[in-house]
Design brief:
Layout (H helix, E strand, L loop, with lengths): L5 E5 L4 E6 L11 H16 L5 E6 L10 H18 L1 H12 L1 H10 L5 E5 L2 E3 L1 H8 L2 E5 L5 E3 L13 H8 L2 H10 L5 H7 L4 E3 L4 H10 L23 H18 L4 H13 L4 H16 L2 H18 L15 E5 L3 H12 L3 E5 L3 H20 L5 H9 L1 E4 L10 E4 L5 H14 L5 E4 L6 H4 L9 E6 L8 E6 L5 H13 L3 E6 L6 H18 L3 H10 L6 H8 L1 H15 L6 H14 L11 E2 L7 E2 L3 H5 L10 H21 L6 H12 L8 H8 L1 H15 L7 H8 L4 H9 L1
Parallel strand pairs: 2-3, 3-4, 4-6, 5-7, 6-8, 9-10, 9-12, 10-11, 12-13, 13-14, 15-16
Antiparallel strand pairs: 1-2, 14-15, 17-18
Helix pairs in contact: 1-4, 2-3, 4-5, 6-7, 7-11, 10-11, 11-12, 13-27, 14-15, 15-16, 20-22, 20-26, 21-26, 23-24, 26-28, 28-29, 29-30
This protein binds nicotinamide-adenine-dinucleotide.
Length: 733
């Protein structure tokens, strides 16, 4: 056979081996060409009497990441074209047939009459794992790198190539739904225990064992095609089914607030599919898949969380002319809350860390945080003792700045005080080489101002982490007025090395993320002052798609910190720069009641030693008269909480602090969890159209105040009928 993406050979036992190894790619991806070749392989195996069965494996270090999402994006564009030219019905027919090609191919493989086995090593996700599920037998390598799973839900899709149907026939319905909802990557032994794989073997034995299974008479009939097949949870309409489905519906609502059509489609596909024979069940799944693929949520999530995030991770903003940075040894000055986290992620990425604080004892305390984090990983079975020893050996705690000699990059995370920072900058620069880049993790001080204390302002940059550093995936890189391209390249290389996503922003108060977060929290405070019951505010935040309500979020970052920032802003910019209502609430909590947030177990919530947090009953008195909950427009609360952030993002963009819509969108989802189904803050505006968004802002402005006033740049965009993404594409062209 003349194949490009597979090597195909048959051994003396008549067992074929199809080794997937697409040329010029580091990872196998399902494309139309791959599908066409797999189709020919199935035909050949089925037709050739000398071939007993076939093993599918990969020639690369991983199996495959699944379908090419840009191919699916292309289908959407083709649909729109056909709908324009030949009408909706024809476009829909085309779309349905095209979007189920993979389903039909896998079903053909499953029913071709010859046994297929998948021998999987490395990552095997999405459409690739659906291929493995369609094979009659699955063997996974016991390697640390091997992971299987169906993560489609994370980009607003669901497994539409048979995944929902096969998984629901392999395990209890509740477990299947959980797996499909979470989209987690599953380790080999766990996968076998869940019933997703038949066996786990050493990497170099998986192919032989798969062949042995075929040689031993492995069946070419999938369990669900056997006449007496019964799904593990039995029938949908049964006492057991009635124990599963009503709670499943409730869990779906609790987890998604009905914001994610793909999650609902999973429920529907499994519920309806389990009542049908496989071919019909697959057709039901395909119908839902075609609908979800065309949903605005999937389009927005694929663009931001797959395409844009991938581009940013690969260095979309990196100055191309500058060669790769050598980052072997990194200095971290300040071993407090943030510095300790920065030291951990840096050492985890394999770099040496010199961790400096005012004394070696303080630095050692910072290092102890790494010990705690790896120990937690060991407890969870995700790391070995040897990993801990190696990681800790890479961190050198010290009180001596001279130890920074030989560092390739230094990041400071000392107290948020310009005087302390200036002293630290001078001491660090005296210790490091003339070429070394210096970064500050300041969250509020302008980089341009801090750089005045530096002898080399072009090598001075902001690398702004979010807390907790080890969990948060976003890093803001702040360009001061004098920051040079070499500093930018080094900062981006560093962020890439620690496997986080960077956005590059210009220097301005609050940078990008904190300005939007501030707008969200402010809106919560003002609602409270209006008399909206606190519980409604919190629920509105979560139902709008935010991970936590605004009051809860304020407790996490510290109520005292919010008051401190507000006071600093007032001192610098005058009384008009802050909202007096917010100041009254924050001062009342912090100064009047000593309520600082989660840190002292007293904030907007009470945090009892045992049991869950509870809203503080005293909030009602602090805020003023309470509105009748029945009279509150709940839909408007949700809208205000998102619009407040989006209009602030539009302002930040209009001011040129963020210059690329991709960065605003990705940054908003990764940095503060902005309703992911919207695709991010600017996609949210694009989704409804700038014109409608401006009208909405004006309505909210008239009712609730000037903070909703749309910026001129947004009004101009609305007047021309433009879009954030339209504009970016034009710029790029
Ligand atoms: P922290 O008080 O926990 O830690 C500061 C550390 O710096 C302390 O260990 C202190 O001993 C050390 N230090 C002070 N002066 C020093 C000196 N001259 N030399 C060496 N070490 C010195 O503070 P933090 O919360 O980790 O914040 C540190 C920086 O990170 C600040 O600029 C802050 O704005 C920024 N930041 C904080 C957060 C957050 O959520 N806490 C988020 C992003 C950025």
């Amino acid at each position: 056979m003349d194949l490009t993406h597979f090597r195909f050979e048959t051994d003396s036992d008549g067992i074929a081996l199809a080794t997937w190894d697409s040329p010029g790619r580091s990872m196998n991806v399902i494309t139309p060409e791959v599908m066409a070749e797999l189709d020919r392989i199935v035909d050949t195996v089925a037709a050739d009497a000398a071939i007993k069965g076939c093993v599918i494996t990969s020639g690369k270090d991983s199996f495959s990441g699944g379908a090419d999402l840009t191919m699916l994006q292309g289908l959407g564009a083709e649909y729109a074209r056909l709908a324009r030219e030949r009408g909706e019905e024809e476009a829909m027919r085309f779309f349905f047939e095209e979007s189920r090609r993979l389903t039909l191919l896998y079903r053909k493989l499953e029913t071709c009459g010859k046994p297929f086995a998948a021998a999987v090593h490395g990552t095997c996700l999405g459409g690739a794992f659906e291929l493995a599920l369609a094979c009659h037998h699955r063997i996974l390598s016991d390697d640390d790198k091997t992971r299987v799973g169906l993560p489609e839900i994370k980009v607003g899709l669901f497994p539409g190539a048979g995944g929902t149907q096969r998984v629901a026939r392999l395990m209890q319905t509740g477990d299947a739904l959980q797996m499909l909802f979470k989209g987690e990557q599953i380790r080999p032994l766990m996968a076998r225990n869940m019933g997703l794989a038949h066996a786990v073997a050493k990497r170099d034995e998986i192919v032989d064992q798969a062949k042995a299974w075929i040689k031993g008479g492995g069946s070419a009939v999938a369990p669900w095609d056997q006449p007496k097949f019964k799904a593990p949870s039995g029938k949908v309409y049964s006492p057991a089914g009635m124990m599963t489905w009503p709670p499943a519906n409730a869990i779906y609502r609790r987890e998604t607030h009905d914001n994610y059509p793909a999650a609902k489609a999973i429920l529907q596909s499994v519920y309806e599919g389990l009542q049908l024979p496989m071919d019909l069940a697959l057709k039901v799944e395909s119908r839902y898949f075609a609908r979800i693929l065309r949903s605005p949520e999937a389009a927005a999530m694929i663009r931001s969380l797959f395409v844009s995030m991938g581009e940013l991770n690969k260095g979309a903003r990196r100055p191309a002319a500058i060669g790769p940075s050598s980052l072997k040894r990194v200095g971290v000055v300040g071993a407090g809350f943030m510095g300790a986290g920065i030291a951990y992620v840096t050492a985890l990425a394999g770099m040496e860390v010199v961790l400096v604080d005012q004394s070696v004892e303080a630095a050692e305390k910072g290092k102890a945080y790494s010990h705690k984090l790896v120990s937690d990983q060991i407890m969870k079975g995700r790391a070995k003792t040897a990993d801990r020893d190696a990681l800790l050996a890479r961190i050198t705690p010290t009180g001596d700045y001279a130890a920074l000699a030989g560092c390739d990059l230094v990041i400071e995370a000392v107290f948020e005080d310009p005087k302390v920072k200036a002293e630290v900058i001078a001491k660090v620069e005296a210790a490091i080489g003339p070429e070394v880049i210096f970064a500050s993790n300041t969250s509020t001080l302008p980089i341009t101002g801090l750089a005045k204390a530096s002898q080399r302002p072009d090598q001075f940059i902001g690398i702004h982490f979010f807390s907790p550093v080890e969990k948060m995936l976003l890093v803001e890189i702040i360009m001061g007025k004098a920051t040079g391209e070499r500093a930018l390249a080094a900062a981006l290389d560093y962020v890439r090395a620690i496997k986080k996503t960077p956005i590059v922003v210009n220097d301005a108060r609050g940078f990008f993320a904190n300005r939007c977060v501030g707008a969200y929290i402010l809106e919560g405070h003002l609602m409270l002052a209006e008399g909206v019951p606190a519980v409604m505010i919190e629920n509105a935040g979560r139902q709008a798609g935010m991970p936590v309500g605004p009051l809860s979020l304020n407790d996490e970052v510290g109520v005292d910190l919010a008051l401190k920032i507000l006071k600093a802003t007032k001192a610098q910019l005058g009384d008009a720069a802050v909202n007096p209502v917010q100041e009254r609430i924050l001062a009342g909590l912090v100064e009047g009641e000593g309520r600082l947030g989660r840190k002292n177990r007293k904030g907007f919530y009470d945090y009892p030693e045992a049991g869950p947090k509870r809203l503080w009953p005293g909030l009602a008195d602090l805020a003023g008269p309470r509105l009748d909950p029945e009279a509150v427009d709940f839909a408007e609360l949700k809208q205000r909480l998102l619009v407040a952030q989006a209009v602030e993002a539009a302002r930040v963009y209009g001011e040129g602090v963020v210059t690329d819509p991709r960065e605003a969108d990705v940054g908003s989802i990764l940095g503060f969890g902005f309703a992911p189904f919207t695709g991010g803050v600017l996609s949210y505006i694009d989704g409804m159209g700038a014109r409608r968004f401006v009208e909405l802002c004006r309505r909210l402005e008239a009712k609730h105040g000037a903070r909703f006033a749309p910026p001129d740049s947004l009004i101009a965009l609305a007047e021309t009928g433009g879009r954030f993404y339209g504009r970016a594409e034009k710029q790029a062209a």
